[in-house]
Amino acid sequence: MNETDKVVEPLSKYKILLSLHYEIIMMSILIVFFITCFIGKSSNLSIANTWLKNNQKFFEDNYAHLGGEREYNPKKGNLLIKDNYSTFKFFASGRIFLNWMLVNIDLKKRQDLLSILTSIFLFGEKDKVIYEANLSLVNEVPAVFMICKKKDAKTHKKNYDEVDLF
User: Fold this and answer.
1) From the CB of residue 133, how many other CB atoms can be counted at a distance below 10 Å?
2) Which is nearest to 48 in space by CA: 115, 112, 122, 129?
3) What is the helix, strand, coil percentage profile of the chain, to 5?
4) What is the DSSP letter of 151?
5) 3-class DSSP state for residue 19?
6) Distance CA 50, CA 53 (A)
7) pTM for the complete prediction?
8) How far apart are CA 33 and CA 116, in angstroms?
9) 109: closest CA among 126, 90, 130, 129?
10) What would the pLDDT profile of 18-31 be if each residue is shown by its tens digit?
11) Across the strands, what pairs with 90?
């Protein structure tokens, strides 16, 4: 028996693992993908429910109808409307001089592995809460209300004449 035969024989034990290295890498990527998906979905839902829990008393005190249903029933279910795994909506109505209020909760895409990697290495996405309200004016008094960053105020005044006028 030769010296080279002794060296080749122990390597043949690992030959099966070496031939399956692409499959092993792909399976590990799939496992990481599914773990990220489930943890990200539950994390975004937890953040949205925490926002609702912190603000629910304010909305109950100031609005007659909460959620997507016409009649408010807190024991009937969740008041958040889920558009997708990272976007939630909350609807409130029944206040004087206000037809409705829609709150959009846009969270990071924590369930998406590619989005997580791009936010780490390239640019970071932020969680946002956007409030939309439809005013119902009785006498239709002309009014303009604008909230913006100080650096954008000059541009908005130039683009919208009524902001500069009032």
Assistant:
1) 13
2) 129
3) 50, 20, 30
4) G
5) helix
6) 5
7) 0.68
8) 11
9) 126
10) 677 888 899 999 99
11) 103
- Residue 70's pLDDT is what? 46
The model's pLDDT over 82-129, given as tens digits with 9 standing for 90+, comes to 888 999 999 998 888 888 899 999 998 888 888 888 888 887 788 999
Q: What percent of the chain has pLDDT over 90?
A: 28
Scored b (16 or more CB within 10 A) or e, 52-75 reads beeeeeebeeebebbbeeeebeee
**Mean of the per-residue pLDDT values of the chain:** 81
Which residue in 57, 73, 54, 75 sits closest to 65, CA to CA? Answer: 73
Residue pair 72/65 in contact (Cβ under 8 Å)? The answer is yes
List residues bridging with 81 in a β-sheet: 89
Residue appearing with tokens 């913006």: 148
